[in-house]
Amino acid sequence: MGLEPLFQAWSYFRRRKFRQCSDLCSQLLERPPSEQEQPESEYTAFQAAWSLKTRALTEMVYVDEIDMDQEGIAEMMLDENAIAQVARPGTSLKLPGTSQGAGPSPAVRPVTQSGRPITGFVRPSTQSGRPGTMEQAIKTPRTALTARPITSASGRYVRLGTASMLTNPDGPFINLSRLNLAKYAQKPKLAKALFEYIFHHENDVKNALDLAALATEHAQFKDWWWKVQIGKCYYRLGLYREAEKQFKSALKQQDMVDTILYLAKVYLRLDQPVTALNLFKQGLDRFPGEVTLICGIARIYEEMNNISSAAEYYKDVLKQDNTHVEAIACIGSNHFYSDQPEIALRFYRRLLQMGVYNCQLFNNLGLCCFYAQQYDMTLSSFERALFLAENEEETADVWYNLGHVAVGIGDLNLAYQCFKLTLVNNNNYAEAYNNLAVLEMRKGHIEQARALLQTASSLAPHMYEPHFNFAVLSEKVGDLQRSYTAAQKSEEAFPGHVDTQQLLKQLKQHFAML
Amino acid sequence: MPEGKAAFREVLPKQGQLSVEDAAAMVLCKPKVLPLKSVSLEKLEKLQRAALEAARPADGTPPPRP
Amino acid sequence: MSLFKARDWWSTILGEKEEFDQGCLCVADVDNSGSGQDKIIVGSYMGYLRIFNPHPVKPGDGLQAEDLLLEVQLREPILQVEVGKFVSGTEGLHLAVLHFRKLCVYAVSGTLGNVEHGNQYQIKLMYEHNLQRTACNMTYGPFGGVKGRDFICIQSMDGMLMLFEQESYAFGRFLPGFLLPGPLTYSARTDSFITVSSCRQVESYKYQVLAFATDADERQETEQQKLSSGKRLVVDWVLNIGEQALDICVVSFNQAVSSVFVLGERNFFCLKDNGQIRFMKKLDYSPSCFIPYCSVKEGTINTLVGNHSKMLNVYQDVTLKWATQLPHIPVSVKVANLQDLKGVIVTLSDSGHLQCSYLGTDPSLFQAPRVESREINYEEFDAEMKELQKIIKEATKTQDILPKSEKHRDLIVTAEVSPDLDAESKAIDSEVKAEAVPSVTVKVTIQTRVTAQKPNLAVCVQAPLAVTCDQFVFDDLEPDSSETVVLSVFLKGNFCPSELEGICVVSYDTPTELNPEGIPKVAQCNFRLPLRLICVPAQASKAANHKLTIDTNKSPISFLTIFPDFVDPSEDDQANVLGFQFLTGSKTTLLASKTSQCMNMHVDALLPGPVSCVGQFVN
């Protein structure tokens, strides 16, 4: 007693058992059309199975396009879309925030390439910042992962249309070059599934756009969904103004949360955060309490380094959904760097209670416990973090933080070993090089310290610590010229650093006397 | 030395402090709170890993280094 | 592992390797017991029909014999079970069971025994309909406004709605633009059927429109199919939601206004009766099932949404009120008033795990897996630490990841470029079209303080330059020994190189205490080749195709200093014009201005080679 195959496939699809669904559909597609079916009728079981299989393959690799945003170097460097060269403070994402509600300085909180402090939460599209020079651009990580530069194991790999390897090992299911897109564009019940396949599974934006353009025309421009899809294609192709038009037009026809999110993404790419904020706020009028919109506002504020407003909106998110991982993680991180580790600990504990169970969380718990002076939990949290680390970069991060704990308890030998272990796991860990240099200095190994600082500052020119330390070291040994150059770099990275200013002043006095 | 009642009298302590030096101390880089990953990012990473696995030749040798 | 786990009140596993999906679960007082208490009815794809009346002695109990009222093997897969007033002449509830080609309506009744386990339940088939088309799902309700009766509408896999007025078949209509079946429901308030089509639209069809559309009984349906552009159903309203839907539910509780709830694949919608969006919520998970179940606050509706992360979320409109962990992914969720407990959440997984839960705040008993950690014995630790520190200290003397300063290099390689060109050129197979291609000797010396195993020297120069021999392999070197080799460099390709640098790299293994087989190490050095290797002095010429001007911030150094091998020292020290003839044929002239701080370079062809070579020297 078996189930009707198409029904079974349909049931598998509902339950997200896509592999079984796809296999069953393949079997159905191999069958010759049965006698019962009328060739002239609109409906055929063959089309149904084809459509279901298409959708199953797409769902296997589907990632919400709203979250996807990987800039290539060209887009970052040759950005024609920047409106104002010199934007007023608080109106541009390229100029990290001014003092209005700005959060902890780089003296307390690590910064990323862009000069923005690291956040508590990372998504595929977390802005990695605009590098100033081509060299920096090449070094800038173009995924949001903490410090890792792009490698072959990055998002691009899957997006290069190799999804078939995962979903359909026998080869691509649909041969795009043989498709008559015009024919499909006239059948919305097939075209929509086909579009998603071409866009998400094959990553073939050009063909997807062709199909969408034909389809929207066939729908006499009355179908908002096709407009949104065209907008998505334009976005991927870098035609942001055109994308904006499509999304706006779609929004006029039908209010939808997704459309608002896509349109806001366009504005953010055009570096108009204030427009995006207004859009979100209008969206909240229409869909009050919609978490994704509130969260969008909070993210924009955080990118503009307006931490107090960001915190406020994240708290609003929690009022709507107190299991929202991003809000909890960001608020926790902000509290930690605002010297409130006990409060941060509460937030991370909540994540633990919710069932989040990974290396990053236990690392953060360990840090919070230590700085909140709950020493009993500290080491076991870090132990678990090491146990859960999935790759060497994560292990390196944990050892790095353990090094800080060691410094905190005064065990400099342990700190030294921890930072060394950090380097063993990740040879490009600039912070570890810097901290090892500080420890070597304490032991009086000046040459070692110098070499380490040079490594650190070349790996991470945006960090002020290696430059500052190099300046101090050089000044000590009397190499004033080098000290001055390094101090200048430190000032560039962190203009507000008082000790750098003092050092520069001292050096200038020296030079004046010469 | 300023005279008069309005002037402050210098007080140079004779014992204790010998010299004061304001030496700049080196700074450590700060501890890192690690960002948590979103669902989309985790799915993307899972797909990447699966893609790399699938790209491996059947006999299990690792893919050629670039 | 959630903040709160759904507390297990009663649960059981149904059968073995049976399969279930959304329609398989129903809760209702199917045996008309009069107490208003619900029973749980479950049908599986294997054809088993089971009815439960759970009453656990204490929460967490499993299945007791008395809980299972009935278990019948109907010989066909059960797609859906519903309870309603399906039999004419009575307002009692009956059980409708949908199979692929059959609809059966049963009466469920129980005869009470003297003791509880004497109760007997049986089902009696009241009527059945054979279906001409493969069924997918069904809905029921008082179609056409009838009172006290429920009719049934079945959707087939190929898009036909078949309407049954209890014991008789009424009519069938094809849904226009159909491809794959979507969820189907009936709204009594508007007397319409609502479904979500493959065009990703919510569509509402009035019953009256269905009923009075072209008569299409089963014999004529093939005609109907052919007239695809003809008598199509006219839809009442349409809402384009842009995605497929898992389920639709119509609610009209007393306080809240009647609404249509749609659970899409990525969003959750609440629509008004005319199809406009009242509110919607974007979901950041993959939902699996839902049920709007009541309203506690005026004007709002509570909904339970299950998802594929095994969570059950409770929403009040769009605000998350509660989140709880389930032991499985629910394919169906219902709220039941069972014998001992009202408001029980009943969930069914697709493998047959049936659970009745309540929401509670007892902390979860989640135990994180034990990390390998040993008992803390401080004395042992200290001793081990000391031992390890000693080993580390020893090891870092000879091998460390931190850079060592130059003084402590174990193996040094140096290259000495002969100041004169080779008397007899060692150039081989040069493509340069010149009479003589010069070469220069480079002497490479390797000095080692430690044992160097299998040292391998590679000398690299950039094309078009070439070396007479670029790889040298030596025997193992003893500590404090050295080796020397000579080789020559010449211009091989017929174009100018962009730089005159070469690099020597020695790779070797050196054994250490921890690694007696040897760890690999590398030493390298650079060397610079003379300009004479690729060009000769020539007549300066002012006529040239291209002119480059290099501005300097200091007065130019005399050519004697920069190009000692090109300028005759006996010439006037103020020589400020110099000509170069490259072996490849191009000519360059350098002029240093006496008055302004700039230098002019005249080239006859703007090739990068000559410019950069000469430029390097000027640098």
From TrEMBL, chain A:
InterPro entries: BBS8, TPR-like_helical_dom_sf, TPR_rpt. The keyword Transcription does not apply. It comes from the Eukaryota. Residues 95-136 are annotated as: Disordered. The keyword DNA damage does not apply. It holds the Pfam family TPR_8. TPR repeats lie at residues 430-463. Keywords: TPR repeat. This is Tetratricopeptide repeat protein 8. It comes from Grus japonensis (Japanese crane).
From TrEMBL, chain B:
It comes from the Eukaryota. InterPro entries: BBIP10. Pfam families: BBIP10 (PF14777). This is BBSome-interacting protein 1. It comes from Grus japonensis.
TrEMBL record, chain C:
Keywords: Coiled coil. The keyword Signal does not apply. InterPro entries: PHTB1_GAE_dom, PHTB1_N_dom, PTHB1, PTHB1_pf_dom. Residues 435-527 form the PTHB1 GAE domain. Residues 1-363 form the PTHB1 N-terminal domain. Residues 530-597 form the PTHB1 platform domain. Residues 371-398 form a coiled coil. This is Protein PTHB1.
